[in-house]
Specification:
The chain is α/β, with parallel strands linked by helices. The protein has eleven helices and twelve strands. The protein folds into two domains: 113 residues, Aspartate Aminotransferase, domain 1 (Alpha-Beta Complex), CATH 3.90.1150.10; 254 residues, Aspartate Aminotransferase, domain 2, CATH 3.40.640.10. Helix content is 33%, strand content 14%. The longest helix has 21 residues.
């Protein structure tokens, strides 16, 4: 496949190899301009009308739904994954003494809430370690009649090793456990098998692969969870909230769908404008194209890094866009590797003993060459 040629849509100098979208995705130029226009509007608030509190937010729902089931009514706009996980926890059945199953060293936003819930109900969090054949077989073994919640991420955030969401979703349903998925490290970069995996809730941030603003996140609720209990009793979520002259005519009725789960001030104008513009751009590429572009780069990287003595995950367990290259025990310490890369203007993340490399559409073969050149001088 021919690589996408879109680097000029980002403010990334030619001599910088930014291979770190798993940390923060760079805001595209068009989204910077949209955010700047929204900031300017705030300096002239008479230009902001009532509809600006609703229409851009609903546009964002629509864009996010395009990566999920296509139903904007299933999407809530929230500030963080932890908010979404807390919402999910408040809307699933977790009996006394039950268990929650998670991955070892899973991202903490999808762990801390479950630990607190388990403490409240006298249950426990079961942590699954990765086996030689990956995560899935061990995870399936941990799901049993005591399991109330299965909470996972499609790829492990630290090294990109994959999880079979379809198999795990089937196992969760077999024991009537809730299935919660954090897609922060995948949505926008790889296709998401929502119809096959059938989760109860999906949560994610937009500031990584979707290139949106920090402070925006989302919650998707399956149709049978769209009339649940929100964390907040806000006014924007209510029927009739577009009529600012009648806000004191209080309503107990929510807007249709998952909008009831929105955070207060979901219409944060600058963030929403930036994120909408970013998602419109990312959506124009589509996850298949993003995934194929990234796979071309990471496949080349893995082959070359392996010859230097770094160890990638086995190919069947490897995501196309995010790969952790584990450092040899007799090589430089991770901190020294991080310093050398940063000094050479190569941006990656060090997670544990792995160099975590994340490739997006703005990355080029030259970025991989720069990374391998620096690593070659260290190993």
């Amino acid at each position: 496949m021919a690589l996408l040629d879109v680097r000029d849509q980002f403010d990334i100098p030619a001599d910088r190899a930014y291979l770190n979208s798993a940390f923060l995705g760079p805001t595209p130029r068009v989204a910077v301009e949209a955010g700047r226009a929204a900031l300017t509007a705030k300096s002239q608030p008479w230009t902001i009308d009532v509809e600006s509190f609703f229409d851009p937010v609903d546009r964002l729902r629509h864009l996010l739904a395009g990566y999920l089931d296509g139903e904007a009514e299933g999407v809530a706009i929230i500030p963080a994954v932890s908010y979404g996980i807390a919402t999910a926890a408040a809307n699933v059945d977790i009996p006394a003494g039950s268990t929650v199953v998670v991955l070892a060293e899973q991202f903490p936003s999808n762990v801390y809430e479950w630990r607190a819930v388990a403490d409240r109900v006298g249950g426990s969090v079961i942590t699954v370690e990765r086996g030689d054949d990956g995560w899935t077989s061990r995870f399936l073994e941990a799901i049993d009649g005591r399991t109330a919640v299965v909470a996972v991420e499609p790829v492990h955030w630290s090294d990109g090793t994959t999880v079979d969401l379809v198999a795990i979703g089937h196992a969760a349903r077999a024991v009537e456990a809730a299935f919660i998925v954090d897609v922060s490290q995948t949505l926008g970069a790889v296709p998401f098998p929502l119809a096959e995996a059938r989760p109860d809730f999906v949560v994610g941030v937009v500031y990584k692969w979707l290139l949106g603003a920090y402070g925006n996140a989302f919650l998707w609720a399956a149709p049978h969870h769209r009339e649940g209990l929100p964390l907040e009793q806000g006014w924007l979520q209510r029927e009739g909230s577009r009529d600012f002259s009648a806000l004191a005519h209080y309503s107990d009725r929510f807007r249709a769908g998952a909008a009831r789960y929105d955070t207060g001030q979901s219409a944060s104008h600058i963030n929403i404008a930036t994120t909408v513009a970013a998602l419109e751009l990312v959506s124009s590429w589509g996850p298949d194209a993003v995934s194929a572009h990234a796979a071309t780069l990471t496949s080349d990287l893995v082959d070359r890094a392996a010859r230097l003595g770094l160890t990638p995950p086995p190919k069947p367990q490897r995501s196309p866009h995010l790969v952790g290259l584990h450092l040899p025990a007799d090589g430089p310490q991770p901190a020294a590797v991080a310093r050398a890369l940063a000094e050479a203007q190569v941006n990656v993340s060090i997670r544990g003993t792995a160099v975590r490399v994340s490739a997006h559409v703005f990355n080029t073969p030259a970025d991989v060459d720069r990374l391998v050149e620096v690593l070659g001088g260290l190993f």
